[in-house]
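Example 3.2
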Amino acid sequence: MPKPSQQRPPSLKDIAQRTGVSVMTVSNVLNKQGNVGPETRKKIEEVIKEIDYVPFQAARSLRTKQHRLVGLLIIDDNEAYLNDPILASIVAAINKKLSDLDYTLLLELSTTAKINEIGPFRRQLLDSMVVISCGNQRKLKALANTLDQNRVPKIYIQSVPEEKGPYTAITQNDVEGGMLLATHLLKKQTEHILILDTKLNWYPLIQRQKGLSTVFKKEGDLTVDVMKTKSENFDDIEAILENYFDDHPYPDVIIGLTDLLAFAAMKVCQDRGLKIPKNIRIAGFNGLFIGAYLSPRLTTIQSVP
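Structure, written as tokens:
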């Protein structure tokens, strides 16, 4: 059977005529509504694919009162934010799920210094919003106040403006993760620990350090140093570790609050001729798949996918 005239795009009426059903039935299949039998649904879906039908989004929005548009806002002071495997995997997973549900993802990137300048999301007709942000609680609260101007449902991932505030959030128990790692590391004789953090103020990292400190402070004779890098870029981590090693004895353990910090520490130590774990033990957080390519394997706390 020939396709509809190319002078106009195919319509619901074209699909209905080719399948012998009503326009309403076709609409129910497209919008995943109503009680349509599996054989009829399959027939309609095959015709939709055959004639390459694309719904007119503006008309659909007027009819359903939904724009099928979800905003994803990432606040990160590291310009190379999508180099972070965790952030990249979260963005990819959200986009895949939304695509399966016939939604479009609108991505916006900003920094903590420009929280009050966030604009595009205010002008978009979003159905909902996902927020991933670094920054301290004061900045996160300011972000929440700004986003409240766009009155759509919001989900915060990893970071929340207030721990007990009225927010919908998806988080993991990073305090418990820190406590588990600290307890594991102290099973061997340990007198000196170096913790590698960043200056980006990511909420999960703050919680991990809180968990570590909860266990470490119970140890009377334990030295714990904390060094903060500008970012997770290797050059930044290498520079701060080289300076530290020049002025301090090597610690028994280096803990990176992310696997990337720990991976960089492994490289710096190996370049100095230190054997891991014989001369120095190194641990991290996240359980990144990249660790499978390293030797020796990194001791790490795996994040819940």
